[in-house]
Specification:
This protein is of the alpha+beta class and 148 residues long. It contains 5 helices and 6 strands. The chain has a 3-stranded mixed β-sheet with strand order 1-2-3. The protein has a 3-stranded antiparallel β-sheet with strand order 4-6-5, covered by helices on one side. The longest helix has 23 residues. The relative contact order is 0.12.
């Protein structure tokens, strides 16, 4: 299945007119698609990773159509996802620290659903901090607060 996913990804980028080196690996049922687009990384990542997320969704849907079953696909450009996760953890740590010190809720705005999820999971094991998403649709935001 790795070769099929690599071929499919290559065809997608060929249609987009983007030259990219593509490698695919599998671990625990998750297919990792690493993309090296040379000087067009920003184009592929998109605003807040939205284009990269769309590529993941397209590849998963295309593989479902070909194989008849869903496969989990994670696409990454360089180490963008790792840097993004480190950045989100730093923001979470800072907000959690402020919540502990001030005992006031710390809202975090302008996060995508996956960014909110990353922070929820990261702070989920904390004994003295809790997280909650509030609002609806595009107005949804994350609140970090000290537990009572």
């Amino acid at each position: 299945m790795e070769e099929e996913l690599k071929k499919l990804t290559g065809e997608l980028f060929e249609l987009l007119g983007i030259e990219a080196k593509i490698t695919v690996s599998e671990k625990d049922g998750v297919y990792q698609v690493d993309i090296d687009p040379k000087d067009q990384a920003g184009l592929i990542i998109g605003h807040k990773g939205e284009t990269l997320g769309a590529i993941e969704m397209f590849l998963a849907m295309a593989m479902k159509k070909k194989k008849g079953e869903w496969v989990s696909v994670v696409a990454n450009v360089g180490d963008w996802k790792e840097k993004q996760e480190d950045y989100l953890k730093t923001i979470a740590d800072q907000a959690a620290s402020r919540a502990r010190e001030t005992r006031e809720p710390q809202p975090l705005y302008n996060l995508t659903p996956s960014q909110r999820r990353t922070i929820h999971l990261y702070l989920g094991d904390s004994n003295d901090i809790e997280t909650e998403s509030q609002g609806e649709g595009l107005e949804r935001y994350l609140v970090i607060r000290a537990k009572a």
